[in-house]
Amino acid sequence: MADRPHRLIDNAIGAILGAACGDALGWPNERVGRSSFRDRQSQASLQEFTRWTRRSGGRYYPHEEVIEAGNYSDDTQLILCLARSLLRGNQWWDYFCRIELPFWSLYERGGGGATKRSVDAWTDGVPPWSRERTTKDVKRYFDAGGNGVAMRVLPHVIFDANVENFACVAKNILLDGIATHGHPRALVGALAYGYALWGAIRRTGSLKFGEVVEDLLDNSIKWASLPEVGSAYYEWLKAANLRVSTYEKLWKATVDEMTSLLETCRKELSKGAMSIDDDALRALHCFDKKISGAGTVATASAVFLASRYAPDPIHGLTKAAYAIGADTDTIASMTGGLLGTFSGSEWLSSLKNTVQDSKYLAEIATALVKKNMAPKSAEIPVNGIRARLSRFMDMLLEKKPGDLVDMPDGRYGQILSGNEIIGKSGKFKVVFRKVACDDGQTLYFSKIKKGAFLTEAGREPRKSRNGATQLQRSLSFGPKLPVRSLEKAVRFYTEVLGLRIRKKTQEV
Known about the structure:
By secondary structure, this protein is an alpha+beta fold. Among the domains are: 4-43 and 147-370, ADP-ribosylation/Crystallin J1 (ADP-ribosylglycohydrolase fold, Orthogonal Bundle); 395-482, no CATH class.
């Protein structure tokens, strides 16, 4: 048992990196058809990150953004938000709801609608179930049963890996969950996934085939109960029962649904080599657009793939990431997180070094195990959050590459690059900033600005072959940073900030 602390750290790092790698592998496939997948598949190995173009802005502000190979999405961002919050000790929930989540809304990449609506409430200074919200908003909150909670619970399990009673972990998972989602599908799914993670990371021996599923089914009482977690919970439950007169009954029905999905996992695993992954995932409703994003479905899918591919984890990760038609980034992230809890990090091979912010991900996993708490308490804002964030964004967009910025969550960073994209109509532009934080995380900010943005000749901006406008290319700052000492600058950016220098010149 002497090596248990070291093993726990390795498994925690493997879990966080596994989740991030799954996220980065699966994100490009989230909204592609099978024909697009075949084109992409022929161009790169399934076990390599790819550079891709993301379409954003909806109907009114359509634009494209290049996503660099290995970049992660909201799944990993929210894992990190929660991890930093837990290192705040007893302040963790308030810190998460009133500092991390509102600030996340400025740099989120692919965040779910339910999470963003709840964050909007916290930014106004009230919970999403508050009577101060509209009836429609509160109803949508309690109807939100997506996987946005399950995908971020990993830090709870790492932080409390040595706690002997899962009930303590369950309370924190529920409290975390109600911050953004109100339907039992989101919360039960998160509790079941949390229990699977907790059991796996505490193991001292090898994992037997199908053991995760059996453990969940045999110990359902440990994850299926509705925990009681203090004053915020009672206020929430009162609001829940106003919207759904028999919330406990709905909870039980969802537990039955989760159990049924786990029994399907058991049935498919019992087929051994005869089981076909796509058929199994289809039986778990992974490809059913009406329910594929549910917390219960995501948990069952991740548990199935992690159980099936425990002896060969990298293939389990790629199966999830390329399950075209499913919520690939989240399922791959959850599968990768679960695989990492009992496989460590070596199985990730080169992926673990090329995923975005790999060093920071490993450091925060270690901090959770060692409980390296924040040195001082934070001042938790209640009012004025939206105005504060608005001022920050205005300031940020005035900054240029090389400038330092103080951020709303107490960190500081340096702008690495910035550019602008003008919409085809010329009636809006999107301003981008890439920021390296002092702790090692990279944040990508963007803001849409409305106006009349025409070229100097009065014409609508022309697009180049890669979709960039003429003005975009002329305004693209890029990561060109003039310095007095090239040698000292290289040492600062590589050794202190952990960044890669792609090009350096001796121009004066």
